[in-house]
């Protein structure tokens, strides 16, 4: 079955003759993208690399952590630094002194200079590796910071800075240890080709190619285009970011039907189905799904179909058609937890003094209820996990097996041979790092157990899961560009084993899932360095230094904001125009309650309301089998192979915390640039598309920070209709007959009684 991927999707090696393949890669995409030459004399261990790299890592860590608490949490990506650092590197190469200094023999001898010559691509790659650490290898900020957030902002408890720092650093360093142990299996072999790294290679080559324009040409250089777009993005964000926040979600349907609950449920971009809602705020476009300019149109189209079916077919049917799980008693779109009467569930009342579930109090308050949207979102996440495993096994299984077998027997390709010119990383570096991280983690789980709740055996179990899954997940990612998400599996497992301990559950998830996820990200970076011929030891030190710097800055920013912003993350009591609603942390907190404090048996088991949601595992597993059967019945219909059920089913995986206005804008802009511009203005797209994406991200990020330090911290605000929220107050109201929220003194919603 795996031959489908090889023969019909063009992923297998294309043969161009044995002699040619000896001097190239057996993977066609790699042959077309990655240069086969190398200049080992290029300096990489330079003052420029360290200066730009450390500053970019710290700055990105600060910005991404800062934005993670905001309603539209913009994530500044690696590509932003990749583009912005190029002119800075060239500028430093022009202005720094070229004087050379002798290096003591104890340090290796030779000479050293602040400016060893022109800014080169290898320095640029290492800077981008620093930057990748600065946005937590794709997560925006260190995942474990979420534990600190929910302890302080939602449970109103405390955790020491030391325990928090050790938790954040050890989870990431453990991932580095797993990566080092797996490197020879999934980095060096040519058949482990890591498709996503080729985008980075292409961008590096495009940025470093010499730009030559015909005489009299009015075409703009990439650097100038980046600067102009940056200034425009920077200047515009003051409007939606301060003067006119309503532009973040223009839900005009709510304005037209100001007294209709149903109309506002349909039209609200933040709390409803987003019918007609749009945005003029770049943070709303790229905050949860990253920049739409980067996503290929194939993925955008799959997400569009999945989103449309879920939001405009499944949810309306479940809410208005069948009243599934008493849907009308709760808001149509919410990630909050509710009582059976539709009011908010006060979680603090069921947590005892030992930070565990108070079973008596839980028995009095009753079971936790979810909005039907939230319950079905969990169902789709179950289906996505199962569908991913089945899809990869059916469509890529044989190919993965063949490539893994080939990787053990094949002769090294040109890239591996070129890398042998450099000293490899000694194995004991990784072994020592793994042992050290495990030791510190065990100390954290024993000496400081009162703060993290995770027992020592839970840590060992989590690390065992991470270690077992790292190799197969890495192989899948390296050959298919798909990374199955196993976070729900870790939450579910620990919730069954140890219910009633919310922090133990999220700590188990961080050690069991995120350390594996970090390992896959580290391995991807290693492969990028492999393609770009970066000395392995330089990669090791830069990755490790970047991880420590990023994790420390993440925690420092979190500690500062949690202690300085009143009612941070409490969207029920914050002002309507407050941006500090922490949508990601809200979902993280809910997960800690569902899987940890209350436990899956009391929600998705016999004692809860949502046991039927477990059937989504079976539905997800069966889906790719059905697609495969149809492909075998109708082999001439090539479009059937374009159905990617993990992407289709997981299209709304970011909802919540993402909302419909985020998806609406992301899909429209992604389609415009990656279908229409790509098809009809391909040269423009090739030259400027990624540059524009980086400039928009950077401009918004810098203006948002400037606004915070110059206006927000000084309590200078503008108050008028355009700063008073989305103007959809009825979108969160229940529509079931007899539900009267006014009877609850803690309820802030003003809703009609039907």
Identify the notable features of this structure and list them briefly:
single chain; 754 residues; mainly alpha; two-stranded antiparallel ribbon; two-stranded antiparallel sheet; 59% helix; disordered N terminus
Give an overview of the whole structure.
The chain is mostly helical. The chain is 59% helix and 1% strand. The chain contains 29 helices and 4 strands. The chain has helices spanning 3-8, 18-22, 28-33, 47-68, 78-95, 121-134, 145-153, 161-186, 195-208, 222-236, 238-243, 252-256, 261-267, 282-286, 297-321, 359-365, 372-409, 414-419, 427-446, 449-452, 456-480, 487-497, 502-531, 536-564, 583-598, 615-633, 645-649, 660-680, 682-712, and strands at 100-102, 111-113, 337-338, 369-370. A two-stranded antiparallel ribbon has the order 1-2. A hairpin with an 8-residue loop joins strand 1 and strand 2. Helix 8 (161-186) packs antiparallel against helix 19 (427-446) and helix 23 (502-531) packs across helix 25 (583-598). It is globular and about 80 Å long. The chain starts with a helix and ends in a 42-residue tail after the last helix. Mean pLDDT is 84; it is low at 1-21.
Total strands: the figure is 4
What fraction, in percent, of the residue positions are helical? 55-70%
- Strand line-up of the largest beta sheet: 1-2
**Mean pLDDT over the residues:** 84
Query: Termini separation (Å)?
Result: 55 Å
